[in-house]
Amino acid sequence: MTSTFSKVTRRAGALLAGLLLAQTALSGLAHAEEDRAKLMAEHRGGTMTLAAVSAAGTIDPAINYTGQFWQIFQMTYDGLLKFKQAGGTEGFKIVPSLAEAMPEVKNDGKTYVFKIRKGVKFSNGKEVMPSDVLASFQRIFKVKGPTMGSFYNGFVGADKCIEKGETCTLDGGVIADDAAGTVTINLVAPDAEFFSKLAVPHASILPADAPAADAGTTPIPGTGAYMIESYNPNDKMVLKRNPHFKEWSVDAQPDGYADEIVYKFGMTEEATINAVINGQIDWMFDTPPADRLPEIGEKYAKQIHLDPLAAFWYAPMNTNLAPFDNVKVRQALNYALDRDALVGLFGGEALAQPTCQILPPDFPGRVDDCIYTKDPGAEWSEADMDKAMQLVEESGTKGQKVTVIAEDNAVSRSIGTYLQSVLSDLGYDASMKAISPNIQFTYIQNTNNNVQISISQWYMDYPAPSNFLNVLLSCDSFHKGSDSSINIAGYCNKDLDAKMKSAMTLSLTDQEAANAEWAKIDKGFMAEAPLAPLFTPKSVNFTSARLGNYVFNKQNRWIASQSWVK
Which of 254, 297, 257, 289 has its CA nearest to residue 273? Predict the structure, then answer.
């Protein structure tokens, strides 16, 4: 089954690659030099319709940690700083958003003073004040946001907030002066990635009276060009223009073209593809199934967009539950995986490439190195089933029950079924369970659910090695009994933790030397194998014929607000 499937998907991938080579090179540069005011006058209005197999859980920007909804948050919320809303690598630039300018830096990089823009209003009509900024940072700890221990633990007073979130004050860490219009942030130590951490949606500035608990399906007012009017994860999300929005920075928060954006949930990939072809859906979040790629590539090449991603699909293994509490079992699965077959399941070599390390290709700190393959070297070549079987025998775990938890969509189900078959071949009593993508990501994080192994994806928050290694595998990212425990493997290695902290400090003065340390850390984690890297994907966006001005941002992917519908 695998070999036949791979032939089909590789043919599809090659076809797509050939048809889209020139088109993809231009992606993200659409109309960059045309007069924006004229374009807005010509194309403003209408309803854009998006679709996904499932919603992505809560719409609380301090809690949701999915690329699916982070795309939405770009046009509904703002932080003090923001990644530039522009095509290509321009999206890596950090620009002022609710702050008038980049902050004044004092105290040897430990103190930052921000001047808050005047006149910016939330969608409920209330003007943004420094006190809202303080409350928003306190709220990260009160709601136990997934990055409170990895992104925001450097604030003065954060240690007390992590210990007891409900009484968080960040006293001495964040100082708001409504009269002066300033916010001062004090850090325990300099942080080379501080601006990036302020620019992601978890640092969105919300009204001071936002609930001190997960908002779930209830929209929180934001400052973006659009506001979430309603959200039913079993049906749809509706976004409309923020009636109080006035464009203050085209780089941080540009005005949008469509008057309304409707995001439908619950359609299958097959139904969505047909709806895109018929002009009923303008963009689909999910990757088209491999068996439809030849048709799409031949007939609708102008509507397919392929864009490289700093990301990887992986299988986190619970290092605190049998059989994966045994390092030999974790290593065995890494040796046993046919990563070419996994690429085939995703859509072929034009859409993904095999990997057996954590940092993605062409990323800071990445040094090509694969230990889990026959003839270990720079790249993965083929599975080593003999080595895998030997390790399982040595572990004494053969015959134990293992359940793989996957998302209930075509690609994830197929990968889950494949992992089940590999585990069965290794001698385990393996099964696979697919659950709604709306809850799968939080479900696999919570230790109360006793998930042994699952399928997940990680898409860069910002371009730094720590955003993969420290966020996914640090001791501070593991929280028992929490839906916000992004260290899904539950792995804590104090030696590697110390090395990561040292690398982050070193990056303040010598980024090249720090990157060399991150490469060693990547290899160190893979030796312990708390997860199994599968492949690195490309973004596949299938859009309707009526959608214009497709802009792909290297940081935040497709910018929906900058597309229009005819």
Answer: 289
Q: Provide the residue type at 364 as one letter.
A: P
Pull the structure tokens for residue 166.
């409900």
Q: Work out the burial of residue 135: count CB atoms within 10 Å of its CB; fewer than 13 is exposed, 13-18 middle, 19 or more buried.
A: buried
* Measured distance CA(378)–CA(236) in Å, rounded: 45
CA–CA distance, 326 with 438 (Å, rounded to integer) = 31
Q: What is the pLDDT of residues 550-559, one digit of tens each?
A: 999 988 899 9
Pick from 354, 343, 337, 356: nearest CA to 425: 337
DSSP assigned state of 548: E
Which residue(s) pair with 311 in the sheet?
459
Angle separating helix axes 2-26 and 339-346, nearest 10 degrees: 60
Which residues make beta-bridge pairs with 308? 538
pTM for this entry: 0.79
How do residues 425-470 score in pLDDT, each as one tens digit? Answer: 999 999 999 999 889 999 999 999 999 999 999 998 888 999 999 9
CA dihedral 77, 82, 87, 88 (to 10 degrees): -130
pLDDT classification of 291: cutoffs 50, 70, 90: confident
Give the C-alpha separation, 262 to 295, whole Å. 27
548 CB-near residues (< 8 Å, 6+ apart): 43, 563, 564, 565, 566
Would you state the torsion angle of the CA atoms of residues 218, 224, 225, 226, taken in this order, to the nearest 10 degrees? -10
End-to-end CA distance of the chain: 43
CB 338 within 8 A of CB 347: no
Q: Sign of the C-alpha dihedral, residues 512, 530, 458, 2?
A: positive
Which residue ranges form the domains of the chain, and what is each CATH number?
18-56+219-305+540-565 (3.40.190.10), 67-203 (3.40.190.10), 311-539 (3.10.105.10)
Q: What does the alpha-carbon distance between residue 437 and residue 423 come to, in Å, rounded to a whole number? A: 23
**Could you tell me how far CA 351 lies from the centroid of its own chain?**
18
The amino acid occupying position 534 is L
| Tokens linked to 58 | 């809560």
Alpha helices, H only, 406-465: 410-425, 437-445
Number of H helices, E strands in the chain: 16, 23
Burial 101-117 (b: 16+ CB within 10 A, else e): eebeeeeeebbbbbbbb
Query: 47: closest CA among 544, 552, 557, 555?
Result: 544
Q: What is the pLDDT of residue 297?
A: 83
Degrees, nearest 5: CA angle 515-516-518: 60
Pair 381, 482: CB distance under 8 Å: no
Longest dimension (CA), the chain: 70
Cis amide bond preceding 354, omega within 30: no
**Residue in the block written with tokens 């943004």:** 128
* DSSP structural state of residue 220: P
Positive/negative CA dihedral, 20, 25, 28, 30? negative
What is the mean predicted confidence (pLDDT) over 345-356? 90
Instruction: Give whole-number Cα distances, 364 to 238, 307, 516, in Å.
Output: 38, 19, 9
Residues 131 and 238: their CA atoms lie apart, in Å, by 29
